[in-house]
Amino acid sequence: MSLTYCNVHFSQQPEKVVYISNTLMKSLNLSGKKNIQLRLGRDSIHAAIKTIKKPGKHLILGSAVRSGIHVPSAGGVYIRNLDNEFHLGPLIGVLSDGPTNTSQPFSSRTGFIKQLLREGKKKCYIFAFTPRDINWQKETVNGYFLNDNGSFYRKTVPLPDVVYNRLPSRKAETSSSISQLRERLGRKKIPYFNWSFFNKSDIYRLLEHDNTVNQYVPESHMNPTPERIKDMLERHQFLYYKPSGGSLGKGIYRLTYLPKRGYFARYRKGNGNVLLRFSSFNSMMRMLQSRHGRSLDSYVIQQGIRLVEIDNCPIDFRFHMHKNGSNRWVVVGIGAKKAGRGSVTTHLKNGGSLLTPEQALSRTFGSRSDEVLQNAKRIAITLAEAIEFHHQHLLGEIGFDIGIDQDEKVWMFEANAKPGRSIFSHPSLRSEGKASVEHILEHCLYLSKFRRRDAE
């Protein structure tokens, strides 16, 4: 396979002709050939070749060629020779959803998607789309592209070379239409990452028998019996009781047992934190049953860990992991989250605050802070590799909630297949936010095979 970067231009000539500069002809080993099979995404067209004397690598498409394979725009893009079919691209689709007929078609994700499209335009054809935008009969997508002034415009393009999944919710992902979409893309061998949100219980189950990483996962049980909860409280003193499919800290309880004082439940209610004391274990369980009923069947109980603290407030860390252009896991960004006073979690919406890892660790480990951080990074990469090994679908990014206890041991509390990006709002982490976008694009190039192997 040969791969090169060229400038695509459009001609008003109606015939099926591709005009190619001499330099590009040589790069693609087309010298002496009179015809070309040109492809974009899933579309392909046969066209005549005419050479032009223009310095540099240029490709000028006649209007019949442009419309025949739905080339969305002129500009710089890759072209590769694969078995004498010349493939423009890659064509990358970002799948999400949101309201129709609005300037924010992807709701709160619109800003992030615009950032992806803005950066991606420099190296590929990239668009966003919703499940409603696919025409399966014609194998086309009515995609959202970004123009130079930052506004969306619509173009019909072929099915893409790779799909980056940023669907907004578990509900959207578990619908029959999305299951069918994934199945159809799979049959067409179109890479699709990340497959779906993780459930907490699934991740614990994947890792519990893996001796390379299970030492980093707190003891956890899905749908525990009251007897199990009581036993764990007596052994660990405090636990986290949380919904398996939850996010943003919603529905989480911190349960504590102090032998001479009783049982305590701390949780978030509205904009405040609640702390309740119970004289008996059974009375605490009755409260939980009355608040949640059968939904407790999808709760997970997890061993509590004594984390390092600042100002008597525990700290944990969000590790934003990416697959890079060489298909290897790397740590791209780390945010330290300090819990608000009395809060069950470190979530920023629950009163938590964001620090850089260096700020947090220097206050807790002093001169050893860099050594502690490097160890946590190594463990995070090992955890990502283990999840990918046991998970049966393509992964390209993971967000880990990681804790470090007072003995410097690293613990993984949660793994998120579609991590939020709030850590990148910290002024010192904005460059990491940009690097995160670049890693997503580089991994798309890898999955679509529009990447030189000698660049790895």
UniProtKB/TrEMBL annotation:
InterPro entries: YheC/D
SUPFAM superfamilies xref list: Glutathione synthetase ATP-binding domain-like
Domain of life: Bacteria
Protein name: YheC/YheD family protein
